[in-house]
Amino acid sequence: MRLQRLKVEQLRQFRKPFEIDGIAPGLNLFVGPNEAGKSTLVRAIRAAFFERHRSSTVEDLRPWGDSTAAPTVELDFMVGDTAYRLRKSFLQRKRCELRHGAHSLDGEDAERHLASLLGFAFPERGASRPELWGIPGLLWIEQGQAQEIRDPVRHAADHLRTALESSVGEVASTQGDALIAKVRSERERLLTPGTGRPTAELKKAIDARDELQAELDEIDARIAAWRQQVDRFASLKGEHAAEAEAKPWESLHAQQRQAEQALAASEALVRQRDADTAALLQADERVRLFEQQLAAFEEERRALQQREAGVAEAVQRLDTSAAIEARRLSEQAAADDAYRAAADALDHARQHDLRQELALRASESRSRIEELDALLARCEGEQVRIGQLRQQAAASAIEAADVDRLRAQGKALDALQVRRQVVATRIRFDLADGVPAMLDGAALAGSGERLITTPTTIDIQGVGRFEILPGGDTLAALAREEADQRAAHDDLLLRCAVPDVAGAEARLAAHRQAKQDADLAAATLASLAPKGIDALQAELAAQHARHEAAQGRLSALGAEGPPVQPPWAPAPLAEAEAQHAAAKLHADTIAGQLAEAKQARLVAHEQHAAALREHEGLRVRLDAPDRHARQAEAGRQLLAGRAEQAALRASIASRTAAIDGTQPEMLKQSVERFQRSAELAQHAHQERQAQITLLAGKLEEAGAQGFEETRAVLAVRLEAATRRQRELDLRAKALDLLLGRLEAKRQDLTRRLRAPLQVRIDHYLRLLFPKAALEIGDDLLPGLLTRPATQGQESGAVSELSHGAREQMGVLTRLAYADLLQAAGRPTLVILDDALVHSDSDRLDRMKRVLFDAAQRHQVLLFTCHPAAWRDMGVAARSIAREQGPDAG
Amino acid sequence: MPRFLHTADWQIGRQYSQFPQDDGALLAEARLEAVATLARLATEHAVDAVLVAGDVFDAQAVSERTIRRLFAQLAGYAGPWLMIPGNHDAALAESVWTCARRIGAVPPNVHLALEPGVLDFSAQGFVALAAPLTQRHTYADLTEWFDGAQTPPGLLRIGLAHGCVQGLLAESIDSANPIGADRARRARLDYLALGDWHGCRQVDERTWYSGTPEADRFRDNDPGFALRVDIEAPGALPVVARLATGRYRWRALAATLAVASDVDQLAGQLGAAQPADVLSLQLAGQVDLQSLARLRAAIGRAEAAVRHLQADLSSLQLMPTAEDIAALDADGYLGDVIAELRDAQSQGVQPDGTRPEAACVAAEALNLLATLLLEGREQAAAP
Questions:
Q1: What share of chain B is helix, strand, coil (3-state, %, to 5)?
Q2: Are residues B122 and B209 located together in one domain of the fold?
Q3: Which domains does chain A have, with CATH numbers?
Q4: Contact list, A230 vs chain B (CB under 8 Å)
Q5: How close is the nearest chain B Cα to the Cα of A183, in Å?
Q6: Which of A455, A485, A672, B170 has the smallest count of CB within 10 Å of its CB?
Q7: What whole-number distance in Å separates Cα of residue B295 and Cα of residue A137?
């Protein structure tokens, strides 16, 4: 398609006719400032094609404020070799004329022809819409829309696809898409779109089938149970009848009775044995009594024998004790004699001993008296010396403290003397011979020196008197102090009766010596007579007294008599005492033994009498007249008792054996067992009867429900539900298969159709990005752009590129579509209204190459307000403003 | 000259799972009507007794209403009805019979032989030797005792039994409820009335299966009759006549389609169907799209004409021709898909005609595609 002339009139700011003629086949550049009318011209071209001339929704075409305007567009263009002239007026004068060659079309006919010629559609009513714009909608890029590619491509998809098909020489299915949509919607009525799970009708059918199946299973279970019950009912009835016939409990009862009889017999035996046992007990008792009786008789006999022996023994004992007594009497006389002899010897020994002791005591006293006399003499000497020494000490007595004080006073006086001499006025004189001079009355002569401490007068005869007054208070005070000290010193000396300090020292030494000597003498005395001289004298007196007493007793004792038993030497006292004690003890022992012997004889006598009495008593009893008869009777009875015992024991043993043979416990158990078995059998019989009745009731009830019939009905419904489920399932699977196949085919086809488009895209892309690749998707839209990067390659979706790049890709792909459409014989016209304004100069340069290349095949109308940017396109820019001429607006 | 009506296998309470519910209900109802027909025929032909050889009921646990309705159908004949239980309604300890008696549904002229034994009908000139089933299945010949059963001379000996005559029917070998092959001769029976086999069938000169009075399956074995039996005197051969009692004709049609004219032939057969027909149509082979359309039309017409028609086309393959495809405007890849599906539906078909699921699905998909395309074409043509 080639636009040759454009004329507008009464259209927005173009109130007057405005015409652009001689539009070139290739690139055309229209420039003008903002508001100059570039976009109005674009709008005019679009309106001429897209808007119905009868449309009332094109008010925007009306010049401002002009209600009578009839906006008109007139276009001359070529399609192939056919020249067209289109004239379209809106609003006030709604008209559309299309002339091509000799043909002329008016109104809607003209519009329809246009639409099919260029590949777009008209709306049923109202303003045109993008989805109807088709090929022009894709190639006529509105201001600022170059980057938007998705919707325009979609709206032109059919045309593009047809163009692609023609280029590939292959036909896509005309009904394909509609059919796929239909199959998909049918499929989605049975399966979920994504995972293909059953849904809606199919799910309902499956659920219905499962539900019925469950119901059927349940009723089948009930039928099976019922059938089992029927079988059980039959078997129970059979068993019951058989048992009613056989009556097993009766035989059990008979067995029970038999066991009971056997048990009764056994129990009788037990009773008899019990009686025997009781009798045996009595017999045992009797035997025991008789045995006791006989034993008693025997015991008495033995006791008499014992008594006889006892009497003999008593006699014996009596004799023995009398003999002992006699012997004891003779022993006592001997012991008495020995005792008296021992007593005499003791007396004698005691006198001898006393004499010796007195003599010893007298000699001792004598020697002590001599010692005491000597001692007393020394003590008296010492005493006298002590008296003398003490006298000496008293005479030289002086207090040591006084001596110390005297010593101190002397030293103080010496010190005062020195100080007075220091302070004193010194008078040195050297007198001429013969001049009498007097100092304080004492004459002076020759030369010398005097110390003056007190007012002193010097009289020199012939000369007069000098009164010397030693200077100052010090001297006077010292003189006073010395006088005081001196007075005290002299006083103390006086009191101590010593001439001077040395005398006092000597006296103190003499005193200490005398006192020391006195103390030594006193100590000596104390050692001689620790208790004093008086004590010594008292002891002396006592010793004298003792000596005299001993002498007195000795003389009183007289001379010692002759020894009592001359052959023996006088025994020592201790021996004599021991012999005396032994003799006394012996005599006492003998006396005791004698008494015991007397006592023993008396006891023996008494025992003998008692033994005689007991023996007599027992003998009388044994000699009783019926005793023998009784004893014989008892012996007989014992024998009878023993015989009875033996008989009873034999009887018990035999009965016990009999009882053990019958096993009474077993019999008891048997009775119980048979009884219980019979009861159980009867009970079971009754129980079964009850069961039968119960089961009959249940079966009646169940039978009345007719559930086998219900089951049959249910089976019919299940069959139907299963059938429906299978049909739907098959349908779902078939739809699934169909959809899969169709979509695969279409995809495959699209892939093949895309190839020529890819060739064109690659062609332009190389001009913009050398070595880049742009994928075209199934929807014919640009997808991934891959181009060299600093390292390797980078890929990214076109939709994620920058605005400028997207714009470039938008223009580029549109040009590729244009190539494709042109190849398919479709008219192409490319309009760019202020496009590529976001491109930098480098990219713009490349895009210019792209556009320039495209313009070799297509007519391109480029409207811009930046004439400088497009100066290098090799075509003259046409200024809209200049061409517009004078404008009323 | 005693005359009997011999019937069996009423199968009251039977449901037809293969049919839609309302058709099934009508067919079930027809079984009761057949009993009424029997009563009417018995009266018309003035029989001395009706012999019912087992399987009166289809199940033990049927509803009271069904029991009452069955016995109500007997009102049309006042003479004696002799019934023995079969395997479906065996005389168990608790059975449909005990239930019927308990609810008082059994009329006095109905004689139930729930235990084996001889029933005396000397007034009618015969004794009946009944061999009822008292268990669901037995592997002993219940008629064996007939041989030694003593009956008064001068009276006909009529046997009643339910089961399989040994060695007669292929499928009866080792089957349950056997009946000795020459029981009638050995037991000196004048006639042995048998039940269990649903088709009417003579076993020997004195032994017959009457079959069911109303068909209940598509097996073509002569159902829908009762037998009128005339016996001159004891020892005389019975004269047996078949009386039609069935209402519905059950027929199974099967065809393998190959060429277009096969469809025409089938359409002719279907066109001849009667209102009392219950048809089963089993088709195999292949058809093109146009033939399929004609076939469907013919089936549709027949469905309207007969009681019930069940058509199974699952083994029939749609084989669209090039013309079909062109006619459907199936251009571009649609044509490819059709061709693919056409091939896929034949993949893995067994010699016996069964197809793997994938082939079934492909066939269904092809049908769907054709249908959708046809719809599309009709819609396009409509405006």
A1: 35, 25, 40
A2: yes
A3: 2-149+781-884 (3.40.50.300), 400-508 (no CATH)
A4: 60, 92-95
A5: 8
A6: B170
A7: 51
Mean pLDDT per 10-residue run, chain B (383 residues)? 92 82 83 93 94 91 88 93 92 87 91 92 92 86 91 92 81 72 91 91 92 86 90 91 91 84 87 88 84 87 88 80 73 79 80 79 84 76 59
The Cα–Cα gap between B179 and B67 comes to: 29
> Is A738 at the interface with chain B, CB within 8 A?
yes
Domain that holds residue B171: 3-244
Judged by CB atoms closer than 8 Å, whether chains meet at A706 and B66 is answered as yes
3-state secondary structure of B156: strand
For residues B308 and B324, membership in a common domain is answered with: no
Minimal Cβ distance to A174: which of B17, B331, B360: B331
One domain for residues B188 and B238: yes
Q: Which residue of A has its CA nearest to B11?
A: A709
Size of interface A-B (CB pairs under 8 A): 156
- DSSP reduced 3-state for A69: coil
Within 8 A of B17 by CB-CB distance, chain A residues are 712, 715-716, 718-720
pLDDT per residue over A67-97, tens digit each?
Answer: 888 899 999 998 888 899 999 998 888 889 9
B 323-342 → A contacts, CB under 8 A: 329-337, 340-341
Residues B55 and B115 in one domain: yes
Q: Do A708 and B60 touch (CB under 8 A)?
A: yes
Among B207, B222, B244, residue at a domain's last position: B244
pLDDT, tens digit, 9 for 90 and up, residues A205-242: 899 999 999 989 998 898 888 888 888 888 888 888 88
Pair B324, B203 in one domain: no
Contacts of B333 (CB under 8 A, 6+ apart): A172, A173, A176, A742, A745, A746, A748, A749
CA distance A735 to chain B (A): 6
Residues of B in contact with A170 (CB under 8 A): 332
pLDDT digits (tens, 9 = 90+) for A609-666: 888 888 888 888 788 788 888 888 888 888 989 999 999 999 999 988 888 888 888 8
Contact B267, B42 (CB under 8 A): no
End-of-domain residue from the set B219, B244, B269: B244
What pLDDT is stored for residue B194 in this prediction? 93
Task: Judge whether residue A887 has pLDDT over 50.
Answer: no
The pLDDT score that the predictor gives to residue A72 is 92
- At residue A172, the pLDDT reads 58
CA dihedral A510, A515, A518, A522 (to 10 degrees): -160
Find, in chain B, the residue whose alpha carbon is nearest to that of A231.
B93
Q: Which of B66, B330, B364 sits opposite A709 (nearest CB)?
A: B66
Interface contact A737-B61, CB threshold 8 A: no
The values of phi and psi at residue A581, to 5°, are -65, -45
Instruction: Indicate left, alpha or beta for A241 from its phi (over 0: left) and psi (-120 to 50: alpha).
Output: alpha
Are B229 and B288 within one domain?
A: no
- pLDDT greater than 80 at residue A147: yes
What pLDDT sits at residue B79?
Answer: 92
Name the percent of chain A in helix, strand, coil, to the closest 5: 70, 10, 20
- Taking the CB of residue A651, how many other CB atoms lie within 10 A of it? 17
Measure the CA–CA gap between B92 and A252, rounded to whole angstroms. Answer: 34
Distance from CA of B195 to the nearest CA of A (A): 22
Q: Considering its fold, how many domains does chain B have in total? A: 3
Question: What is the value of ipTM here, to two decimals?
Answer: 0.77
How far does the CA of residue B307 sit from the closest CA of chain A (Å)? Answer: 18
What is the CATH classification number for the domain harbouring B93? 3.60.21.10
CA-based nearest distance B149→chain A, Å:
25
Contacts of B115 in chain A (CB under 8 A): none
B209 in the same domain as B301: no
B89 and B194 part of one domain:
yes
Q: What is the pLDDT of residue A471?
A: 66
